[in-house]
């Protein structure tokens, strides 16, 4: 009787311990299977990031923004690639975005030339093309023709005759002006197919767009901007104030 009671005393705690171990193993197994079969879903923000691998770069303030042309170009580019009239060392620089088929542009430049005559050696004029986007337009082809004349050292004579033609400018007249200036016509005609020449015009257009220019004529007198036609008196006043600095 004593042996039976003693065995029962040992059996009861053993049963409790065994039950605890069994429950622990069961719970652990359930949690393990749940993690394998039903993994925890990412938060909504993480799901968006998974769908768009670049989402973090769009929102992370520490990621450097890729600059655009508008970020990089804050003033006209002066690099020797565009036609220049006047003394390169002149203290006043007038940059004109223009179009050979624009009557207002021709009229505006007469004011600029008058200003240059009034201040000899003080002003240089830089020409930049801003023709129509259509590469087949007379506006765009005239810009190319001017660059082709520049390749032969005759931009400004070509430029003057093109503007003097007024509303009579045509594709035939673009060729006629080149002949009158005794340009090498074989080179002149080949130039129209030259990607480098076309790129020079496209570069000016891209520059104008980056600067927010929406029309011509558009002038920069040093850092001062003029949209549309500006009078000789206004230009003279600006030049006077700049020369006094």
Biggest sheet details: 5 strands, mixed
**Which strands sit side by side, in order, in the main sheet?**
1-3-2-4-5
The number of strands is 5
The poorly predicted ranges are 1-11, 41-59
Structural commentary:
The protein is of the alpha+beta class and 245 residues long. The chain has two domains: 2-40; 84-243, Glutaredoxin (3-Layer(aba) Sandwich), CATH 3.40.30. The chain is 56% helix and 10% strand. It is built from eleven helices and five strands, in the order ααααββαβαααααββα. The chain has helices at residues 2-37, 44-51, 55-59, 69-72, 103-118, 138-151, 155-164, 171-180, 185-191, 195-210, 232-243; strands at residues 84-86, 92-98, 123-129, 218-221, 224-227. Strands 1-3-2-4-5 form a five-stranded mixed beta sheet. A hairpin with a 2-residue loop joins strand 4 and strand 5. Helix 6 packs parallel to helix 8 (171-180), helix 6 (138-151) packs across helix 9 (185-191) and helix 6 (138-151) packs across helix 10 (195-210). The longest helix has 36 residues, at 2-37. The protein is elongated and about 110 Å long. The chain starts with a helix and ends with a helix. Mean pLDDT is 82; it is low at 1-11 and 41-59.
């Amino acid at each position: 009787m004593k042996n039976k009671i003693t065995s029962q005393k040992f059996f009861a705690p053993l049963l409790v311990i065994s039950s605890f171990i069994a429950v622990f193993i069961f719970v652990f197994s359930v949690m393990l299977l749940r993690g394998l079969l039903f993994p925890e879903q990412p938060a909504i923000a993480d799901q968006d990031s998974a769908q768009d691998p670049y989402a973090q770069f769009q929102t992370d303030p520490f990621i450097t923004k890729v600059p655009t042309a508008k970020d990089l170009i804050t003033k006209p580019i002066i690099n020797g690639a565009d036609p220049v009239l006047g003394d390169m060392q002149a203290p006043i620089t007038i940059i004109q975005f223009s179009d050979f088929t624009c009557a207002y542009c021709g009229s505006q430049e007469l004011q600029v030339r008058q200003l240059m005559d009034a201040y000899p050696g003080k002003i240089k004029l830089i020409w930049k093309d801003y023709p129509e986007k259509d590469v087949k337009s007379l506006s765009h082809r005239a810009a190319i023709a001017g660059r082709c004349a520049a390749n032969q050292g005759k931009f400004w004579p070509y430029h003057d005759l093109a503007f003097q033609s007024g509303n009579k400018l045509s594709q035939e007249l673009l060729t006629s002006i080149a002949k009158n200036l005794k340009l090498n016509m074989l080179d002149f005609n080949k130039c129209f197919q030259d990607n480098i020449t076309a790129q020079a015009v496209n570069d000016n257009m891209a520059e104008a767009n980056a600067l927010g220019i929406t029309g011509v004529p558009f002038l920069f007198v040093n850092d001062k901007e003029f949209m549309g036609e500006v009078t000789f008196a206004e230009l003279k006043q600006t030049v006077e104030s700049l020369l006094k600095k």
